[in-house]
Amino acid sequence: MDDQGDNSFPSAPRAVEPATVAHINPVTGLATDYLNHFNEAIMLLEMLPACPDCRDDLRAWTPMRYCEHFRRSRFTGRNRAIAAYESADPATRDMLEALTETMIALVERARKEIDAETNARVSAGIAERTAAWLKLLAEQASAVINGQRTESTDGPPQSAADRMIG
Questions:
Q1: Residue 12: inside a domain
Q2: CA-CA distances (angstroms) from residue 164 to 22, 62, 82?
């Protein structure tokens, strides 16, 4: 059979849209790449029970807001991500910010408690609980970024963090 008449092969890829390159949700204008920052903290907390030396890495983790994260990243679409964020729906941005403020407060509280704790088993429990809560919050933040969550039910970040670790 002649290959020239075979239409079973997909056509050549089209040019990628700039929003796709930047992994920006076209509906919300937000990029999931920001959550990688929190995934790093989750990973460190999950490793802490088996690797107490991760405490130093956890101490070194620096909270960053959305635009700051992209300004410091090597992410190819960082300027587009910042511009899209700045023009995103304020209510959606506020929802994401409330979740990430809660995540930051949770990590900071856990770090303080882990640093103050001398019992490795208790520290491991704090790290495991915090990682579990952060995963849930990261899922909620991802839902906001992807336009799947439309209303906020979270309280102030510190009170939420207190309830979670409590």
A1: no
A2: 33, 21, 31
Q: Which residues contact 40 (CB under 8 A, 6 or more apart)?
A: 61
CA distance 111 to 18: 38
pTM exceeding 0.90:
no
Q: What is the pLDDT of residues 99-127, one digit of tens each?
A: 999 999 999 999 999 999 999 999 999 99
CA distance 154 to 1: 63
Count of domains in the chain? 1
- Using CA atoms in the order 30, 99, 137, 128, what is the torsion angle rounded to 10 degrees? 130
Range of the domain at 66: 26-165
Task: Report the Cα–Cα distance between both ends of the chain, in Å, rounded.
Answer: 70
Helix residue ranges, H only, the chain: 18-21, 35-47, 54-60, 66-72, 78-86, 90-116, 120-145, 157-165
1 is a domain residue: no
